[in-house]
Fold this protein.
Amino acid sequence: MAVFTSISEAELTAWLSDYSLGQLQKLQGIASGIENTNYFVTTSNGRFVLTIFEKLTADELPFYLNLMAHLARHGIPCPAPMANRHNSFLGEIKDKPACIVSRLSGASTITPGVRQCAAMGAMLGQMHLAGQSFAHNMPNARGVAWRAATAPLVRPFLDAEQAALLEHEVALHAQRNLTLLPRGVIHADLFRDNVLLEDDRVSGLIDFYFACTDALLYDVAITVNDWCMTPEGKLDEERTRNFLRAYRAVRPFQTNEIDAWPLMLRLGALRFWLSRLFDMYLPRAGEMIHAHDPRHFERVLKQHIANPQHMER
């Protein structure tokens, strides 16, 4: 784990006394994730995931927990938060906010096939429609202001060509008005490791803690940039085409979204190039970072610039 808060079975048993989830049978740490500490928890009543939040505060968390509860009620396979005896989704462990949610079946994939990409496209469309009735808003913490503030921090670690590319892209996207595109709740981080599959069916969407209110097309671009990308940083045409066709069968794209698609792919790549640069070169003190290679999304960005991808009309 990137940030690890150790908890014993005795400590968890005491914490679970505030819930009606049965007796603790097994506690197992999950060795992945860079934002939170996670454990698999098995009780006499079922299987759950305990999350101890290392960055997000108790004031920020209700948006995410209420969103997951809302989506789960609307048939989206996402973790359902468990309420304690005080009817709250949020608790506290070792002076840190924590929650426990249902554990979903399935496993993530590294190499999604065409049918899996289509299933993911359809599920993303369903999630976007379900989110339209969610009443709360959350500004995108990784939006234009974050890009403008973060780019100068990573600049000393780049060569001249990289710095010029970063400066150009940050300035380009700062000029765009995404509020004209259809908006709603987006996941903003639906990489392959945040999706569970059973064969060609999406059985779970997890890790909603970057979710926010933004252009729905931005969520599509972020997801396509991971699910449909080759190791060389190029979009696989067949996977991309099937993903987008399945999505638009659920939520048709507007004309301005089709026009915005090439630049939106670049924005999605820029966001993760920049965050990976920051995580690699400026990690928080005390963090054990499993930093992703920022060069991957640098390559993706360059490919999108050299070979703009257009959406079928």
